[in-house]
Design brief:
The protein is mainly α. The chain is built from 15 helices and 5 strands. A 3-stranded parallel sheet has the order 1-2-3, sandwiched between helices. It has a two-stranded parallel sheet with strand order 4-5. The longest helix has 30 residues. Bound molecules: tryptophan. Tryptophan binds next to strand 1 and helix 8.
């Protein structure tokens, strides 16, 4: 079977949502690796809340993906609750939409196995994230890490999701999801069974860089806590980190071209613009030629005003695991109700005996 790279737009799949005044169905996942920071918030989680009026949304804490690398069993449950708390604190409505953890919906793993048999070794070998994570130690990484994108495809297609919000780093995995959908549809001669899921790309400032080095991504694995603003940081911590954020000896940039050449200033301006919900150019114009100290104090006020309530709500929810577990349990039940018929149909298409 030749690899097919062009697909059908998921029009037939979208129609049913359009009939309900919606644009489609979204699925997205976040790994329970803990320590959410500003980059996760601005790049993903904040957008989850913004999509919920236009789409039917499923937001999944992907604990099966997490164990592709070693996870301390004692930490997995609390970290899962932490991500779910962040979804809720960011404003996702867990009654109207579906918040759940992946391992509670076994259909993900079942469809993933079928996709392991659809995807080709060559496709998986080309995944940049695998190459980066495996590094030189390829012989010693888990088989699950290699198969990771097939599970991600299953997360999406077990709900026939029409759209997935993606950042730069997950684009290749979504491309692979589309290839898997197309190959499955072709191999089994079921045109249009799985949709060819569309990416939803968010505009500026999804790339939040380290506060200590504007050329590196903000990351939970950076040894310096001053490199990032954690979602659970209080006002003092936020203020201190912004005060110590790296800058350069010049006044604030006065053009976009100037900012581009100054990664630390550019990053802080991007963060300001994202938090203020304005274009970066507008932020540049607002602070052009001013001193960094003045800008930093404005940024601190804004960050505290925007992130403070989210962090506080997250803290509150994390002290109420009973409530969060209830949301996840209820979400998993509703997710299973959507997934089970699609898996049953898939099993039939593959030809499994159902005595
Ligand atoms: N791979 C994604 C990440 O690391 C997480 C993820 C798993 C995901 N399944 C997904 C994202 C499905 C979107 C849709 O960020």
């Amino acid at each position: 079977m030749p690899d097919v790279t062009t697909g059908v737009a998921p029009n037939s799949h979208i129609a049913q949502y359009q009939a309900r005044g919606l644009k489609g169905r979204i699925l997205s996942g976040v790994q329970p690796s803990g320590d959410l920071h500003l980059g996760n918030y601005l790049g993903a989680i904040r957008n989850f809340a913004r999509l919920q009026n236009d789409y039917e949304c499923l937001y999944c804490v992907v604990d099966l993906h997490a164990i592709t690398v070693w996870q301390d069993p004692a930490q997995l449950a609390p970290k899962t609750r932490e991500i779910a708390s962040a979804f809720l604190a960011a404003g996702v409505d867990g009654d109207k939409h579906v918040i759940f953890n992946q391992s509670m919906v076994p259909e993900h793993a079942e469809l993933a196995w079928i996709f392991n048999c659809v995807a080709r070794m060559g496709w998986m070998s080309r995944m940049t994230q695998f190459k980066e994570k495996a590094g030189k130690d390829r012989e010693n990484v888990s088989l699950g890490l290699f198969a990771y994108p097939a599970l991600m495809a299953a997360d999406i297609l077990i709900y026939k999701a029409t759209h997935v919000p993606v950042g730069e780093d997950q684009k290749q995995h979504l491309e692979l999801t589309r290839d898997i959908a197309i190959k499955f549809n072709n191999d089994f001669a079921v045109p249009d069974f799985f949709p060819v899921t569309e990416p939803l790309i968010f505009g500026a400032a999804t790339r939040v860089m380290s506060l200590r080095d504007g050329t590196k991504k903000m990351s939970k694995s950076d040894p310096s806590d001053f490199s990032r603003i954690n979602l659970t940081d209080d006002a003092d911590a936020i203020a201190q980190k912004i005060r110590r954020a790296k800058t350069d000896p010049h006044p604030m940039p006065d053009t976009a071209a100037d900012a581009e050449k100054r990664p630390d200033a550019d990053n802080l301006l991007g963060i300001y613009a994202a938090l203020a919900d304005i274009e970066k150019d507008a932020a540049i114009a607002q602070f052009a030629g001013k001193q960094f100290s003045e800008f930093k104090s404005a940024l601190t006020d804004l960050a505290v005003a925007k992130l403070g309530p989210v962090g506080a709500e997250m803290q509150r929810l994390m002290k109420d695991p009973g409530h969060v577990d209830g949301v996840l349990r209820n979400g998993a039940e509703r997710a299973r109700a959507l997934a089970a018929p699609i898996l049953a149909e898939t099993y039939k298409i593959v030809g499994f005996l159902k005595p």
